[in-house]
Amino acid sequence: MTTNSVLFTYGNLSTSWLYVEETTSTTSANHLGKLAIHDTSSQCVEEECRLRKSINRSLYMLMQFQVNFSDHSRYYDFNSIGISMSLAANAGLRPLMDGRWNLPVCNVFEPMSDFCEIEGDIRVEGKSSSIYFTSSTNESWRIKPYARKGDNDAMKYVTELSIISFLETDKRATAPDCNINHFTPAIIFSVGGYAGNQFHAFTEVLLPLYLTSHHFHQEVQFLVTSSQPYWLKMYESIMKQLSRYPIIDIDKEVDVHCYQKVTVGLKHHKDLGIDPTKSPKGYSMVDFAEFLRMSYSLERSSAIKMDGEFLKKNDNKKPRLLILSRKRTRRFTNEDEIVTMAKDLGYEVIVAEPGVTTTSYNFTHIVNSCDVMVAVHGAGCTNLLFLPSNAILIQVFPLGPLEEFGRHIYGEPAEAMNLRYLEYKITVEESSLVEQYPADHAIFMDPDSFSEKGWSAVKSVYLDQQSVKLDVGRFKDTLLEALELLHH
After folding, report:
1. Any residues with CB less than 8 A from the CB of 328 and at least 6 apart, and which?
2. Tens of pLDDT, residues 323-369
3. For labeling, which of 62, 109, 123, 286 is most exposed (least CB within 10 Å)?
4. Strand, coil or helix: 107
5. Residues 6+ apart with CB under 8 A from 394
């Protein structure tokens, strides 16, 4: 259980929320499910308590509704969604013309990310980690702009930003003066947390950044906090495809940068996935795959189809099989044996390891050139993003309670990208753990008991201590199934 608090001031009212989240600790994703929202005011008069409860209930309803709007406007007709005028008024919202009302700038009710969408006179002061904006009401928020909220280990590496409103007519406003004025929108986000891991980089930064920025068609500037120069260089191809402006490291800025439109934080849908119903333009994982091909200049949009016509024209052409190699944990200990068996089946085989065999840019081209990719469960499976459509991902599961999670974070995205997905679950005899533990150990007899101990227990045994020696006779059936799929 994780408890988080949000302080919110609006108009002349101040309230805070305490929301409790349940963490499923059996996976590294730490999926969060919101259980409750409570008013943290321990003492208040009856009328004030009633009003605060109404504010909490109203804002939760409004923000859940807000994220589904395609135009992302802050102004809505609440009558059209069945929210009463009195309920909206109790939330401290300002009535405008035509029955519309003004929403708060920040949404803190999404399970994995907080984000704010601000328009007007906006001033970004990097040295104080503050964003000031003009408003007719009083708002203040504290946001960590990284899409993994509730995970304290990740969020301790993320700089917290203060979002503070000020009245345009207030001569005593504490907002700093502008040094540099910009005429493009800006998006502020963090590359801290777990962003050094490829899966987390895409799940918590790059895919949310695509969702938040792609509709600007490169006419947007990125302001980064918790910046890592190597990280920005590694994903430079993606960044340049999303923005044509230089990236600003606001942690090092002494100037105050001013904008008319700023988004703080990124919009997150799900692990390595997109929900088209939440996307402002209906983007899908197919669109994201096409975007990545454009970013990295990948040539192949589709895997080979080994039908009769293809075989007549390409009698010597073989399907390409990529074996994702690992040199430390969860490595194939009989790699050469697997390669020989695959070649005998008719594959052209490539063995490569991300970040070792070649640069990350060149590795995307290796992946894209292949029709089948075999990988042991782990961050390397994220390279499925660069496979051509109709290619096949074969995820090899080591021993342990990993299958449901692995299907969720890699199987589901693969299918959403129009890939074919197969999996291979190793037996006890194929695991190096048989050399370390007796046959009647709970590791083999009761893997779920490790899930109950939390993710650290699962990781320390099933991921960090285990290597795989595939039974090539048994695995042969999976490669034959992949070949059959390539005929259709």
Report:
1. none
2. 999 888 899 999 999 999 999 999 999 999 887 555 688 999 999 99
3. 286
4. strand
5. 372, 373, 374, 375, 422, 423, 424, 478, 479, 482
Distance (Å, rounded) from C-alpha 295 to C-alpha 342? 32
The pair of structure tokens assigned to 224 is 């980064």
DSSP 284-339: -HHHHHHHHHHHTT---SB----SHHHHHH-TT---EEEEE--SSTT-BTTHHHHH
- Give the DSSP H or E segment for 451: helix 448-453
End-to-end CA distance of the chain: 47
Query: In terms of DSSP bridges, do strands 348-352 and 221-225 run parallel, antiparallel, or are they unpaired?
Result: unpaired
Please name which of 391, 396, 371, 370 lies closest in space to residue 381, comparing C-alpha atoms: 396
- Write out pLDDT tens, residues 410-436: 999 999 999 999 999 999 999 999 999
Structure tokens at 394: 């074969």
Token output for 439: 């046959």
Q: Tokens 């979002």 sit at which residue?
A: 163
Can you name the residues that pair with 164 across neighbouring β-strands? 132, 140
Inter-residue contact 466 to 435 (CB < 8 Å) = no
CA distances, 232 to each of 35, 209, 237, 462 (Å): 36, 13, 9, 32
Return d(Cα 457, Cα 449) in angstroms, integer. Answer: 10
Between the CA of residue 409 and those of 200, 243, 304, what are the distances in Å? 11, 27, 25
Mean pLDDT of each 10-residue bin along the chain, 488 residues long: 43 43 36 32 45 48 45 45 49 48 79 93 95 87 94 94 85 82 97 95 97 96 94 95 97 96 96 90 94 97 83 78 92 96 96 74 95 96 97 96 94 97 96 91 86 83 93 97 94
**Phi-psi domain of 434 (left: phi exceeds 0; alpha: psi -120 through 50; beta: other):** alpha
